[in-house]
Every structure is written in C-alpha cells, then in structure tokens.
C-alpha cells in the first residue's frame, strides 16, 4: 500500500486535518494495521515539501492546533497517474515459500514437514477470512476474498510442490 498516494487520494476528495486523514485511512485501508499518527504527519510533511499538498494556517481544535491540508494540482496529477496504472501482476517467481523449501532440502531438513506446517497456517488464515466474510462490511468481505484467493493459489502450489518434492530434492543435491 502506498501511504502517500492513499493520503493524496483522500485529500483530493476534500481538504482534511491529519487526524481526519488517519481516521479515514484506518477505516478504508488499515484493515488490521492502523496508520501511526507520526507516519501521517511525516508523510504530509514530505508531500508539502514536494509541492503535492499545502498546509493551511494552524486552527484551534479540541486538542493541539491543527492544520487543514489540501491537494495541489501536482498532487492531483500524481493520483490520476497512479490510478491509471495497473498494479504489478504478482506473485513474483522467487517467493519466500520456495526459498524455504529449497533451503530445507539443501540443509537436510524436512521440507515436507515445513510444507505441512505452511498448509496448516494458510488454512487457519482462510478460516479467519471466512469469519470476516460473515460480517456486514462489503469492503471487508472483498478484501477477505482477495486474501483467500491468494491463499488458495499458495495451497495449490504447496500440493504440487509436495508431489514433486523428491524430484526437487534430487535437483538440489545435484546442483
């Protein structure tokens, strides 16, 4: 997730205080990982430095004085460009799962046990996603679907790798 671009997008919607940006980010994008206030303000500082946002005058509030940030034309162009670019197709060919299996084989460890443990971890996470999908939030359900589809692909890979483990072990031994 690109925090600066997400904040710019929220600011294109309407000028906001840092506190409001954090709240909206956490509501829409921070599922399970809220954005620290320090990161919000340091990101806004960099965006202001780069001419992508402007900070208004300090305003009194319920707590410390607050500034309302607004997106600039440069920032709006960056959001437009970002939204028009597709996300890189994943996964990459070199994954942590693959690396662990090959290293386990190289080191004489039980790669099949690792794959079994990984399968159990994926299945546990899928159950968590299924629970999320039973909730009322469409956004949460769509994010859970995305996660489940990736886990399903990993599980298929785990099954195929487990079936080919002897051949991979031989390849690793002879390399």
TrEMBL record:
Origin: domain of life: Bacteria
InterPro entries, sorted: Tscrpt_reg_PadR_N (IPR005149), WH-like_DNA-bd_sf (IPR036388), WH_DNA-bd_sf (IPR036390)
Pfam families: PadR
Transcription regulator PadR N-terminal domain ranges (all copies): 7-81
Name by which UniProt lists this protein: PadR family transcriptional regulator
Organism field: Nonomuraea spiralis
Source lineage: Bacteria, Bacillati, Actinomycetota, Actinomycetes, Streptosporangiales
């Amino acid at each position: 997730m690109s925090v600066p671009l997400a904040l710019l997008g929220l600011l294109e919607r309407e000028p906001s205080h840092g506190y409001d940006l954090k709240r909206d980010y956490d509501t829409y994008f921070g599922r399970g990982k809220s954005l620290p206030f320090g990161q919000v303000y340091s990101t806004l500082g960099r965006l202001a430095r780069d001419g992508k946002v402007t900070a208004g005058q300090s305003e009194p509030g319920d707590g410390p004085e607050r500034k309302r940030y607004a997106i600039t034309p440069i920032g709006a162009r960056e959001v437009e460009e970002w939204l028009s670019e597709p996300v890189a197709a994943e996964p990459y060919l070199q994954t942590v799962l693959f690396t662990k299996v090959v290293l386990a084989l190289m080191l004489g460890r039980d790669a099949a046990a690792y794959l079994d443990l990984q399968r159990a971890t994926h299945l546990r996470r899928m159950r968590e996603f299924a629970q999320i999908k039973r909730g009322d939030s469409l956004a949460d359900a769509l994010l859970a679907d995305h996660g489940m589809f990736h886990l399903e692909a990993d599980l298929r890979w785990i099954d195929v790798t487990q079936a080919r483990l002897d051949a991979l072990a031989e390849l690793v031994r002879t390399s």
